[in-house]
Write a sequence for this structure.
């Protein structure tokens, strides 16, 4: 069995058996990560370039750790300290890196479709680590994997994604991944931050946070992506927090115990208060832990397709 | 021109009571070197070596009811040397080692020893669990003269002379319905 795709550009390209295969492989890597020696030699003849044209903490560290634990050679590159600022094109930059015999490229880029573009123009295998407001496939995989870990399965679970759906790549990838796995998905946020055609993906839309939380098993709280907002989408951050911020009072008022997720970075006190983020119901740090195992699985399965 | 067809020819090398006697002999040989197994552990290599390890552990528990026989499963998929060099994707199995192998005598087990590459990978894989005092290898079938790397077993069920195109298949009562070792050959018929 192999993945049906040579690159991981988006959840869109994965079928159900791909996702299940990634999860089963990640299960194995999770046990590896709990051993005294957390390293396996699988990718010892593979070189991976992490190319980040946008800021990242978790994703870059998580990919780098995953690569190192698979024994790959790793080179890191971030746009701010590179020749991109001198006017080099994306294809030129990547081809120059590939000329140094790199096999795989993990890329984050501010523009949607950058990964697809790169996959068409360079020889290496591409893993999308977030392209603009489009997709962030490994985040969606680790989110679904964390839900599966918590509940045993994803199918039939009700998941609400709260916040800035319009500018969020995590939202789109999550919707595609969760729907593929048979979960019910709802998005919740101010009308200005919910794209008009989101219903065509088969998700419910709700503008009242309490209604959404009462409906769901899992709430995935997203950050407001101020860096992508060119106009004002809501009057003030304070008003957003009053209407869509999750606090302990709301959480305790629900008649069931829901699971809280957040892809990070958290803006404490905005979309989620500290006591909720650090509560027993929160699996935010499990998500981070699972991220390494999921990324190991993705890299392992892609690399296994041959030299 | 006559059509050439390929058929499989199966030759049973060991089955029934003789199979059981072989397992018992291996157990007695183990006891000779490991006494009551207080410092020794059994590790079966996934996927097929674990059945052998289960069976040997079961027999040892019958012979030594007082002893605590520790036995684990080791998956070597991520340690193989043919990753990215084969057509099909390697699917990993579970590793289950609930004890510490640091300072222990480890008896690794696999059903068939052929090129020795699996054993090399297993030695690598095992290091993630500590530094054993000593490592031994027990194999039910030794396909002689076919090693790619210098690996030699310490305990052998039966030795078989075979050629590369042949396969040795071990079936187990627990999973396949019967205990049997079969040499499978592809025969060209004209």
């Amino acid at each position: 069995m192999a993945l049906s795709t040579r690159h991981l550009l988006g959840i869109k390209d994965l079928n159900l058996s791909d996702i299940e295969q990634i999860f089963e492989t990640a299960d194995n890597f999770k046990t590896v990560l709990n051993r005294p020696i957390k390293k396996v030699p699988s990718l010892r003849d593979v070189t991976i370039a992490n190319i980040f044209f946008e800021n990242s903490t978790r994703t870059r560290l998580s990919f780098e750790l995953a690569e190192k634990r698979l024994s790959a050679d790793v080179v890191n590159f971030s746009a701010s300290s590179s020749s991109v600022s001198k006017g080099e094109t994306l294809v030129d930059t990547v081809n120059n890196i590939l000329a140094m015999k790199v096999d795989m490229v993990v890329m984050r880029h501010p523009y949607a479709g950058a990964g697809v573009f790169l996959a068409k123009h360079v020889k290496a295998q591409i893993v999308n680590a977030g392209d603009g407001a489009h997709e962030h496939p490994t985040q969606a995989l680790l989110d679904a994997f964390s839900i599966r870990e918590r509940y045993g399965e994803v199918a039939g679970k009700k998941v609400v994604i709260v916040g800035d759906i319009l500018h969020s790549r995590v939202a789109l990838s999550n919707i595609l991944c969760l729907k593929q796995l048979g979960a019910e998905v709802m998005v919740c946020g101010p009308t200005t931050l919910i794209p008009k055609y989101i219903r065509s993906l088969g998700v419910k839309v709700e503008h009242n946070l309490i209604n959404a939380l009462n409906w769901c098993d899992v709430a995935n709280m997203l950050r407001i992506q101020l860096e992508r907002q060119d106009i004002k989408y809501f009057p003030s951050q304070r008003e957003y927090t009053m209407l869509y911020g999750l606090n302990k009072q709301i959480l305790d008022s629900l008649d069931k115990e829901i699971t809280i997720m957040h892809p990070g970075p958290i803006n404490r006190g905005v979309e989620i208060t500290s006591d909720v983020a650090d509560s027993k119901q929160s699996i935010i740090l499990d998500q981070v832990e699972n991220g390494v195992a999921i990324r190991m699985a993705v890299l392992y399965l892609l690399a296994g397709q041959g030299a | 021109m006559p059509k050439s067809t390929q058929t499989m020819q199966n030759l049973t090398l060991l089955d029934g009571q003789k199979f059981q006697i072989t397992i018992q002999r291996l157990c007695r040989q183990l006891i000779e070197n490991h006494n009551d197994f207080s410092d020794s552990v059994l590790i079966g290599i996934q996927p097929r070596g674990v059945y052998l390890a289960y069976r040997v552990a079961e027999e040892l528990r019958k012979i030594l009811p007082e002893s605590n026989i520790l036995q684990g499963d080791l998956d070597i998929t991520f340690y193989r040397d043919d990753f990215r060099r084969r057509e099909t994707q390697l699917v990993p199995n579970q590793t289950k080692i609930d004890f510490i192998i640091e300072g222990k005598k480890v008896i690794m087990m696999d059903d068939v020893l052929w090129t020795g590459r699996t054993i090399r990978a297993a030695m690598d894989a095992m290091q993630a669990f500590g530094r054993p005092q000593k490592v031994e290898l027990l194999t039910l079938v030794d396909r002689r003269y076919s090693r790619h790397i210098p690996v030699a077993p310490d305990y052998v069920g039966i030795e078989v002379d075979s050629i590369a195109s042949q396969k040795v298949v071990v079936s187990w009562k627990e999973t396949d319905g019967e205990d049997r070792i079969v040499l499978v050959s592809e025969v060209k018929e004209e």
